[in-house]
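User: Quick sanity check before I run a bigger batch. Here is a single chain. Can you write out its predicted 3D structure?
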Amino acid sequence: MNIRFFTLAVTAILFAACTKIKTSTDSVPSISDQTSKNIAAAKAPPSAVTYLTGDGADVTTTPVGGLILMGGGTDVDAAIQWFLQRANGGDVVVIRATGADGYNTYMYNMVPVNSVETIIIDSRTKAALTSVTDKIRNAEALFIAGGDQWDYVNYWKDTPTEDAINYLINTKHVTVGGTSAGLAIMGSGYYSASSGKSVTSAEAMGNPYSRNVNLGANDFVASSFLANTITDSHYTQRDRQCRHVTFMARLMKDFGYSTSVKGIGIDEQTAVCIDQNGIGKVFGINNAYFMRSTSLGAETCISGTSLTWNRSGMAVSTYRIAGSSIGNGSFNATNWTFSGGASYYNYVNSGTLF
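Assistant: Done. Predicted structure follows.
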């Protein structure tokens, strides 16, 4: 009797233990289930991070074309207001490769628009997404934020995002532009910064073919107002005029700008706003510089040797316009004429700018 009772007790304990183990095992996904989930995750389509302020429904208005070119640092409120008004109440899109929604509330509260949406495009895969390019193409104004222009060249060039930007400029005729790195890619010629190190003026003039002088031309953003033109930002604050002149000399020698090259350098807290007719004004508290080669290219522009671009002391014709809160001076991008500023010549002897 005791043996039978003992046997029954042991059997009950073993049954309970087996039942508990089974229940515990059932709560863990099988290897095949987990593999299926991993495969499903791998097949999930990529998506871009977006931030929306305002109405998510697309509206159609009649935008006005133009360009906003901002030199970096604190944004110029008057220039941003000019930019937003040209959307005529439509949808404003901000694109960038890093950062978040810093422009959304600022822009949305400045001028009545239907929405402001920021899109983070940080890979070539995302730059090819229809969900991204449709938003850009539907915009009534497009702003390219600051950051690293190599990200923009690396991720966006030769992708549907590039096509969408150029569609806005040349077909839909909306106002497009940006600040700092966003400005750097707007000209037909551009400094890509692909080496990962921003080239200084001393390095560029000391050796125009330094590994950090990374240029491209005629293969990215395309605006007729900035043909044969290279832009630069943070201009006097980071002593960039010398490197800018070097970029111009290289474009003349190596990139087909053999008869003429132009440059627009813009200080921080300053912006050049160009309307649909190519007429520009300078907003902000500092200066914008408009440069153009006067005749031939540099006398000495070779690897390992300091730049010399003299041409009788008149290598580059420069026009400086100071900014104001209401827009100062006049710049005609169609024929490169000016008023309201000061003109002078720049030239370079053995790596020194005069």
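The longest strand covers residues 287-293.

User: Great, the batch can go ahead then.
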